[in-house]
Amino acid sequence: MDNKLIVSPSPHVHGKLSTRRLMLDVLIALLPAFAVTIFVYGIPALMVTVVSIASCVLFESLIQRFLLKQRPTIGDLSAVLTGALLAFNLPSSIPLWLVVIGALVAIGIGKMSFGGIGRNPFNPALVGRVFLLLSFPVAMTTFPSPTPDAMSGATPLTFAKEALKSGQSVSQLMDGVSYTDMLFGLKAGSLGEIAALALLIGFVYLLCRKVITWHIPVAILATIAVFTGGLYLSDPEHYLSPIYQVLNGGAILGAVYMATDYVTSPMSKKGMIIYGIGIGLITVFIRVWGAYPEGISFAILIMNAVVPLIDKYVRPTKFGAVKPVKQ
Amino acid sequence: MSETLLFTILALCALGVLAALILYFVAQKFKVLEDPRIDNVEGILPGANCGGCGYPGCRGLAEALVKNDDISQMFCPVGGGATMKAVAEYLGKSAPEKEPQVAEIRCNGSCDKRPRTNIYDGASSCAVAASLYAGETGCSYGCLGCGDCVAACNFGALRMNPETGLPEVDAEKCTACGACVRACPRMIIELRKKGPKNRRVYVSCVNKEKGAIARKACQAACIACGKCAKVCPFGAIVVENNLAYIDSFKCKLCRKCVAECPTHAIVEVNFPPKKEIPPVAEKKDATDAKDAVVAPETVIRNDNTSAAAMAGKIENND
Amino acid sequence: MGRTFRRGGIHPPDNKLSAGEAIKVMPLPETVTVMLSQHIGAPSSPQVAKGDKVLAGQLIASASGFVSANIHSPVSGTVTSIDSVPDAGGTRRPAITIKVEGDEWAEGIDRSSDVRKGCSLTPSQITEKIAAAGIVGMGGATFPTHVKLSVPPGKCAEYLIINGVECEPYLTSDHRVMLERGEELLEGVRILAKALGVKHSYIGIENNKRDAQKHLEGLLAGTTDIQVVPLKVQYPQGGEKQLIDAVVRREVPSGGLPIDVAVVVQNVGTALAVYEAVQKNKPLVERVVTVTGKKLGRPSNLLVRIGTPVSALIEYCGGMPDDTGKIICGGPMMGRAMANPDAPVTKGTSGILLMSGSESLRAPAAACIRCGKCGGACPMGLQPAMLYKLARHKLFERMEAFGAQDCIECGSCSFTCPASLPLLDYIRLGKGEVMKIMRARKA
């Protein structure tokens, strides 16, 4: 026989899953929200996304080739996803050179400095976003108004926070607020956070494709809803309603797409619930009592840091970890 | 204003003193008395933390060296005799002496001599391959070539030769810590006496199959013909379990066995090339090997030993 | 609908190419090579010498210890050598080689096809007969059956579960046995139940074998001692612990045996062999082997004498396709790739699977992205990614704390891993080391 037999340990078959396939699925799930954002913000949004993805991929391949001397892994699409998620966290009016800096921080510091995919403790896209938010707060918090009559340029959460600070009551500022607009994306905000419904469609897609499980998103959103719901019931004039809280800001984007990043989230189901609750609580703390109107980015980054601890102590129950049946 | 200042300074000072007091008492209470010599001995040791001495790192050895009166069984292979002498002098104990050693790869089955019979596609780890099956060639004793030994070496003394598919030892860098010996699942690597001028002679094969089978799997296999043992004037070579072994302490490096070995399984290292017959040219010649295989007395003796070994194996497994 | 086990599990493509092929009797080969170690435990000690004439069914090697099994000559002929021969992996192991001459059987063996019902033997007599016939677990684990039937003192068996799951893709030998030898199989189950003193037996069959479920249910109509349990398709349902969980909802404790939850599991093939041994005096000298592969000419289920070279089976089924990359002894999930296709069929060979070159090679491993899918797939509730990392760093003590010793080596983790990491390769290695540590501590 000419061709030699191949020998390897079992199993001899492999499922169809690959890193590339998973990343591609997440990108597909982002498409509906992307479509809405293009519809609302037009060409600038497209430009931000393209620049962000292109610079993330470029930086990853450059760093891998010249600094780390690794085998290039841009084919796994993880850099593309980081770029897309970074863009989704930026306002459409941001100068494009800032996007490039954000991408450099996200890929260079957030991901490659730890050794590349799988090793980064923090979500790279959020590292990039938070860097930009702290360094260029004006550019990062100025949003073009989607419609002429909508709340002028401020996101719903910023608007509400300012109004509450100035002594207005919730019922006063709720005048003219339309939940349907929020659901469909007719509000100011970063590219990815505006279209709640489109994001949820992507969530359903991810669940169907079994890319993620429900644990993290549901834990985060439920925690936000329950916590703010409790506050709302205690004093409806001072605290925003839970629906307003869940629909606005990056709550859905963060819960479904950012917090579920495999690398930076716990591996066990129980751990995921704990992680999700933590993010929910910190988000509400920042939103209600903190200086920033929105806090889910910080909440996710803080909980990212806790993940190794969660993974260490929260383990799945082993089969047979029960006492034998008495005879 | 000055009152506030004064109060602040006083309060801070008081706090500092209080903290110092607490720290002092705690430190007294939990004081760990440690022999300061341990630190000094650790300083003398090379600090490679390779574990070659059998203790957990250099500090482990330093502790053992200080605590035990008899240190003749402890040896730092990395530092060698000089380091051990320095330590012994410092501690006032008698220094253990050991010949400098070097790791030797006892497999000569390079790609051209040992035909591949299948392709291994599992995790690139010798340990995984060894636990799975006999390996990519017909020889179930030889080097698997995945480089577990290279990965285990802390000193960069091993490298895989892509041409032969076998690891090579850099005798200059090798400290004989034994990490590769432990890493090799086939037990091919042996620590041997470094020898005068680094000259060594050893059997570069660990195949325990009968001659014909071993020879079929690999041209460079020891076929246990026993010629080397017969020719050795010092009785340094024994043939056991179908395999010749040279005792490096008895061997006087006369190299008679090297010339005699029909399969060139016996290897000489760091000798100047012989003038008459260059050893490289001789290696290509395989006719000797076939003659040796059919030598009648060899075959008969091999049959007996293997049958006995098989019976023994079966009994042992009870 | 059906039940299934509750933790982990995967759904590899079924590929049961030979499910519709009736069992054919493979012609006798010219020589057979009977390995002396075809079971878990000590190799058997040969009872014949070179040059001896043997009859089919004659004892040629006897068990050498409690966990060991007798071996009988599968053919009649002359012993040509007792020596070590390369096994499937290329390692040389002791074996008896017999040149086939005619087909004469030892006395007292009933080779007729009529079904003998009713067994008047006592449980201990049954167990003795099974031990004498050299029967081992035929699902692939090859654990001597008589040992499994010897319930340790202080324990008792409540249920007997017959494993008709055959969850490995491609394999169909158990399926065909259930369809074609149903009556004899059920008789074997009753004998096993009697040996164990068990009142109630279950036969677990996955829903991809509806015909076998219906057939056995038809044969069982009007009886209550045996019940067919339809199971939802999920790998590795054929694992002993998973099957017990699926059928009677009991978890075998970590480090324990099925008998700890009062259950004994036996394979379909084993039950048939038990029937033949007890009712027909026929020792285990042949078995049904699935020979399959996408490129193979005629995927078949063959009744093969033990010791027949695997290459002969492949030849009989249309010959080795040109681009064969891998020959697997067993199924694609847990089978062993063969380095030597001339190795013989043993008692545990449930199938021979040929994979083409392109199917055979693994994808290059990428970096772990911590997706946790391996943990989701693990039927034992372990964390394969963690165990993999620990094994690579040789932290075997910590692997024990993470339960490496509970791994059943089903391969679900490696199958699922999107980074194509060789998870099981390393976990299996680590498990071996952990077992060594545990044994050393016990000793």
Summarize the structure.
By secondary structure, chain A is mainly alpha-helical.
Structure, described:
The complex is a heterotrimer of chains A (327), B (318) and C (443). Chain A has two domains: 19-139, no CATH class; 146-313, no CATH class. Chain A is built from 15 helices and one strand; from the N terminus they run βααααααααααααααα. The longest helix of chain A is centred in the N-terminal third of the chain and has 26 residues, at 43-68. Chain A is 61% helix and 1% strand. With 318 residues, chain B is of the alpha+beta class. Chain B folds into three domains: 36-91, 3-methyladenine DNA Glycosylase II, Chain A, domain 3, CATH 1.10.15; 100-192, Alpha-Beta Plaits (2-Layer Sandwich); 195-305, Alpha-Beta Plaits. Chain B has 13 helices and nine strands. In chain B, helix 2 (36-44) crosses helix 3 (57-67). Chain B starts with a helix and ends with a helix. The model of chain B is unreliable at 277-318 (pLDDT under 50). Chain C has 443 residues and is of the alpha/beta class. Among the domains of chain C are: 123-280, NADH-ubiquinone oxidoreductase 51kDa subunit (Rossmann fold, 3-Layer(aba) Sandwich); 373-442, no CATH class. Helices cover 29% and strands 20% of the residues of chain C. Chain C has a six-stranded mixed β-sheet. In chain C, strands 2-8-7-4 form a four-stranded antiparallel β-sheet, with no helix packed on it. In chain C, strands 11-10-9-12 form a four-stranded parallel β-sheet, with helices on both faces. Chains in contact: A-B, A-C, B-C. At the A-B interface, strand 1 of A face strand 2 of B.
Low-confidence stretches of chain C: none
User: What's the helix count of chain A?
Assistant: 15
Helix content of chain A: 55-70%
Overall, the morphology of chain A is: globular
Largest sheet of chain A, if any?
Answer: none
Counting DSSP H or I runs of 4 or more residues, the number of helices of chain C is 14
User: Helix/strand-derived class of chain A?
Assistant: mainly alpha
Tally of DSSP β-strands of chain A? 1
Main structural class of chain C: alpha/beta
Tell me the greatest interface: A-C, 44 and 80 residues
* Portion in strands of chain C: 15-25%
Overall average pLDDT of chain A: 89
How many structurally independent domains of chain A? Answer: 2
CATH class group of the domain at 123-280 in chain C: Alpha Beta
Summarize the main sheet of chain C: 6 strands, mixed
Q: Which CATH architecture of the domain at 123-280 in chain C would you pick?
A: 3-Layer(aba) Sandwich
